[in-house]
Structures are given as C-alpha cells and as structure tokens.
Design brief:
GO terms for molecular function: cytoskeletal motor activity. With about 325 residues, this protein is mostly helical. The protein contains 20 helices and 2 strands.
Length: about 325
Amino acid sequence: MAVGDKLTGVQKTAIVLASLGEQFAAEIFKQMDEEEIRQVGLAMSKLNQVDAKVVDAVLMEFLEKLRGDSGPLVGGSKTAQRALALAMGEDAARDIIADMERSIEPVPFERVKTVDSKTLASFIKSEHPQTIAVILSHLPQMKAAEVLREFPENLQYDVVLRISNLDVIPPGIIEEIDAVLQREIVSTEGAEAKQLGGVEAVAELLNNVDKATEEHIFGRLEEDDPEMAEKIRQLMFVFEDLINVDDRGIRTLLKEVRNEDLTVALKTSSEDLRAKILGNVSERAAAMIQEDLEVMGPVRLSEVEQSQQKIIQIARRLEKEGKIAIGGKGGEDVLV
C-alpha cells in the first residue's frame, strides 16, 4: 500500500485501528455513526498485509515502537468482523459485515473487461458457444456488442441464441471459466501486440520502390481493388508532395539535403515545385542550382528517383521528429 497522499483518511484510520488491536478498535467504533463504521470496516477488511514502513508513516507518534521488529501489519476481513462484533454486538454488526463481504467479493470477468475487444474475440472465438455466451453475458453491453461484432455471422447467431436461453449458472463454473480466460490473458501480457501489414505498410513499402515497380503494382491494384489503391495513394508521400510543405519546412529540409542530390532530384520535378524550392534558398544558391540544371546532360531516371528517395526519407524523418508537416497525395496537410 502506498504512503502519504495516496492513502485516504479512511484507509489511515483503518491502519491505526488494526495496528492497535480489536479491543481498541471496538472502543473507537462505539464513538462512530453507522456510515463511518461501514466505511472504516470495509477499509480494514481490504488491508490484508501492510508493510511496517507504511505503518510507521501513518503512526508517526509510535515510530520507535513500530520500527525494527514490529513486522508487517495483519488486517483483513476477520479482524474487521471481530472488532465490529465487539463494538456493536453480533446481531447489530451482522448487516454491516454482510455488506462488507459483498463489497470485497471478486467480480467475475473483471479483468477481461479491460482487454481490447478484438483481442478478446480472438481469445474466445474457438471456445464452445455456450462458454462464449456466459462470458459475454458478464460484460457491459457495449463491450459485449463490440466482441460479438468480431465473430463470424454463424457464431454470432449461435451465441446470441444461447445468451437468450441462459439460466442460472453455478458459481463454480463461472469462476472456472474466468480463471482459464485470465490465465490466457496473463500469458500474453508480456508480448506486445504489433500491427503487421495493412494499407499503411503497403504505402511505406511503395514509397521505397522504383517508379516502374510502383506503377506496375498500382496498375494491378486499380484493376482488382480501386478503393484500396486510392487509400494507399493517399497514404503515400512522393517527391512532388513537397509542394505541400510550408516555406519554413522546406528550409528545414534543405539544411539536411546535399546540393548534388537536390539538383539531380529537381531534374524531373514540376516547375511549381522547383520554384518553391529555389525560392527558399539564397539568390546565389538558387542561381547555381539553376545553372547546374541547365548544363546538366542526360541523367538516368533511376538516378533521379534515387536522389528523390533520399530527400523523401529525410522529409519523413523530420516529420516524425515533429520538425516539418507534410501532406500526402490526398492533398490533406498532416500536422505533427
């Protein structure tokens, strides 16, 4: 248990009463109203073992007494129940103790509720539909609906039908299902989930191939799945997309680009992009680049694309670092 500000007043009171014994706690309970007794009694029942250092921090006036061999503090439900019985009498304490026990009773599938819906669906979809029905019936309705949506249609129907026919289920069965599911979840918690594939991965891949390969793949994609092809295009970043970078971003980019790569890359660029880039360098540098372009002989297209790719990679790195904002083929500016 935490120390200081992380402990509530009720928790600190519970530690004090538990550390000073049942008789003392009983005397204090006699001075409390019923609601205070409920709160402190519940807090005592949840104490279990509290480290001696925590006890020292809460009971500073007894620092010397609790230091060293004082050992851990043992609280828990039994301590709270005995103290309540001493303070109020067994009959009067019975209702409070019952409320207290209900409050600390474990809730089935509590841990499962925090698992991502797709992940949970993958865990349980191979289970018997009756087992799935039991699990979903214990989840909040929105969570259950999200998980159900991930199942195949025939399984969806079977599970819903079984939920509608669920009757009283013995607690032992629910606890067993919960325990098995929790073990499966715990066994995967150390492994970080990683998104593999997807249109983002394809866009990243095509950003790094030559123009001929890109055009060939897009040609096939547009025949088979035009919508997917358009999604990938919108996620891609090509050299001409530098037109969407603001002047400050262009200047930041050019600081990291070699003049030789820039000159070759501009060989096939549009006039608008060339004007934008030359407008963000000094007049002398712009004149030198323009002169180099005019006297430059024929250059292999693969060399031009290679220089453009180098600049694209620098631009993407600067975007990830939050130093520039770039726009994709879809024409939307991306702010980072």
